[in-house]
Amino acid sequence: MKRLVPRPLLTFTILVLWLMLASDISVGQVLLGTAIGLVIPIVTAPFWPERLRIVRPLVGIRLFLVLLYDIVVANLRVARLVLGPTDKLRSQFVEVPLDIDDRFVAVLLGSVVALTPGTVSIDIDRTRRALLVHALDLDDPDELVRLIKTRYEVPLKETFGC
Description:
15% of the residues are buried. This protein folds into 2 domains: 8-47, no CATH class; 57-160, no CATH class. Helix 1 crosses helix 2, helix 3 runs antiparallel to helix 5 (141-160) and helix 4 packs across helix 5. It has helices at residues 8-22, 27-43, 57-83, 103-115, 141-160; strands at residues 92-97, 119-125, 130-135. The chain is mainly alpha-helical and 162 residues long. The longest helix has 27 residues, at 57-83. 57% of the residues lie in helices and 12% in strands.
């Protein structure tokens, strides 16, 4: 069954979208939508990343809550910085060494950093295993590296077991 329907949620979503676009719920449209929903995941299977197993879901939930808190606090801080005198901003590029082996988890870390206002992940250098981050206002680059590693990288590694 897994081979016939490798991604059941995607198949169902394609079927629903097809029926919405067709604006006609008939047997033919349902069969055609189902066929399209079955073929697309099979044809695109080589492009999908390997499925990661969540080893410690509670750590992932805690990471999500920490991220939400950091986003709110960073939004307030960035608003204060932008609305205040901008000539005192100390923006910098910082290279964060990565201890993550999995490519998907490294990209996820880059996305987490980009979600936090005031920081943007620029590049993931896989050969040097580093994440290039731009910070809007930064006193101590080492403190940013420590913060990213302890608040985001370590929990991501624990969540996905890598």
